[in-house]
Amino acid sequence: MKYLPYEIIEQMIQCFGKCFHYKDPMASFMRSCDVPSLIINKYRDLPKFVWARRVLEDLSINEDGLIIQRKLLTNLCKLRDLPDKEVLDRNAGLDALRKLKRLAQENDFIIKEEKEKENIQKKVNQEKLTLVLQRAKQLEELRTLFNNCVIEKNRQKAGFILEDLLKSLFELNDIEYRKSFRTTENTQQIDGYFRFDGFDYLVEAKWRKEIPNVAEIAGFKYKLETKIDSTRGLFVSINGFREEVIKEFSGKGTKIIFMDGHELMLILEGRITLKDGLRYKIEKAVQLGEPNSPLYLASVN
């Protein structure tokens, strides 16, 4: 890193001498700019102008010190008023600050810092935009996959594709998801698992012409009951559910939330995020005992 120009160093010394009346505020300002206490205290007994000069000289020895020098310059230039209210000649102090800012601008030090911040912000905005576009592209690919499954004649194959689609959708929303597996005793088939907002969820996914009946949902409920008490369930049926069947699993003690194909498409179309959709259904189940609150109500709020 290049050394600060001589005239800027000299003007910084003038600022320290004229903008501070007492030494404690001056020492605090230096510490706020990461000047090591060892260097601050080393010359503290000297007059303010000499103290500032010795500190700046010690900081010019290595790269880290030069960085601190620039931080001192930057923070002095950011001052809109004198940092020490006890200064006797305020005009002299303010004039010293104005001259330092002018020198810093003439030498591009302030401009460079502002440009650097602007470039960093542009980079951050570009990265955010890139992520948004990537997510939109991935959602579009999942929508295409979903639409292709609608006309898939082999419904068993469609079911397997649904499992893959759900895994991809959850991971796209930064939710770790485990696809289809069997329990250790090989007695239970689990279509999926994820953890969300502190709770573990098992997934049952159906894509077939027949709508799930009471026995099938009861079977899923039994799977949940064989796990720890806090385990919950997400039952996804692309062709929906019968309202009378849902009522069998509503109210007190409900541990299952339900999602149909229309709601899944709302998520795939980006009208509501998966996380917001899950939270909406969970909140309605907890607050009202309704595990099948339609997502289109959440997407228009």
* Arithmetic mean of pLDDT: 90
Major sheet description: 5 strands, mixed
Overall outline: elongated
CATH topology of the largest domain: Trna Endonuclease, Chain: A, domain 1
Number of helices: 13
Taking all Cα atoms into account, the compactness measure Rg is 33 Å
Cα distance spanning the termini: 54 Å
Helix content: 55-70%
Number of domains: 2
Q: What would CATH call the architecture of the largest domain?
A: 3-Layer(aba) Sandwich
Instruction: Give the low-pLDDT segments.
Output: none
By CATH reckoning, the class of the largest domain would read Alpha Beta
Strand content: 5-15%
Structural class: alpha/beta
The total beta strand count reads: 5
Query: How would you spell out the order of helices and strands?
Result: HHHHHHHHEEEHEHEHHH
